[in-house]
Amino acid sequence: MDIAELSTKILSSDRRALARAITLVESGRADHRAQATELLDLLAQHKRQALRIGLSGTPGVGKSTFIESFGLMLTEQGLRVAVLAVDPSSARSGGSILGDKTRMERLSRDPNAFIRPSPSQTNLGGVARRSREAVALCEAAGYDVVLIETVGVGQSETVVSEISDLFLLLLAPAGGDELQGVKRGIMEIADVILVNKADGELKSAASRTCADYSGALRLLRKRPQDPAGFPKALMVSALEDQGLSIAWDELQQLDAWRREHGHWQQRRAEQAQYWFHEELRQAVLSQLNSAEAQGEINQLAQQVASGEVSSVKAAGLALARLNITTG
Ligand SMILES: Nc1nc2c(ncn2[C@@H]2O[C@H](COP(=O)(O)OP(=O)(O)O)[C@@H](O)[C@H]2O)c(=O)[nH]1
Ligand SMILES: [Mg+2]
């Protein structure tokens, strides 16, 4: 594969080249990894940046429907939109969360949209790197907005929020007055909560849910990266195209404020550091898990059990013998 040529094609917004490059960054092969790194380095020189929007919500809440309506609204405004998924569970469930392309039929045919279903990968470390690099590829290909979707399964929200500028949480109207068991940690990373399905019979329930969450958000600790009134809860109907342009206005205002006040830049810098630490951690962990290392470690563990070596000393010996390197 000619990496320079692939890079040129991506920069000229060639969708097939973009798709191929994403396949390349998803590959686990060492030679592919080297090519992917070379490609990303080439593209990074162009410093193209998109607005990255993370989107989370439990299955059935309307993520696919929302992405279709919201994405089409953006492309109608002349913006180019890429959609990616972070789905660490896809290997288990055997299908991607964007597999229901029927719900995004119109968007997937739109020449100004690019939709990439999630690959099946088992470990979150791999998923995180792949997603991060796919976002960078979409930015290089000149997309204005990159939507990154995830289902609400544990750590995947963290992955998504660490590659997004803005984080949206999609909720459905609740039956009673309970706060749907949304974990506090998720609430704390949300910039905007969208209560979807605010239409027909569900409208009044949506309105109550929205008020409940507005109240709950006000009780959270004030974050320095928020202007007055944020984070906030809004009502939308993805199905009936209601409230989407208001939501977009709010997101743009938030983004503009953060850029103006240096929070946007600071956040991206912190994210780069976060991923540096993560890469390092993953590299060390994968070395610890190699067969060779496990042999050494098991041997030392036996010596620790018999009292021959102290646990602290054994750990030091293990690290020294492994001569841990990254790469
Ligand atoms: N009434 C109503 N139903 C919706 C809305 N958005 C999605 N749905 C329905 O909710 C179901 C799940 O939607 P889907 O987009 O597949 O949810 P996902 O699993 O989060 O991707 C489908 O039957 C949709 O038609 C909405 O705004 N209003
Ligand atoms: Mg879906």
TrEMBL record:
Its EC number is 3.6.5.-. Pfam families: MeaB. Residues 49-221 form the AAA+ ATPase domain. InterPro entries: AAA+_ATPase, GTPase_ArgK, P-loop_NTPase. Keywords: Hydrolase. The keyword Acetylation does not apply. GO terms for molecular function: GTP binding; GTPase activity. The keyword Endoplasmic reticulum does not apply. It is an enzyme of class 3 (hydrolase). GO terms for cellular component: cytoplasm. It comes from the Bacteria. Belongs to the SIMIBI class G3E GTPase family. ArgK/MeaB subfamily. This is Methylmalonyl Co-A mutase-associated GTPase MeaB.
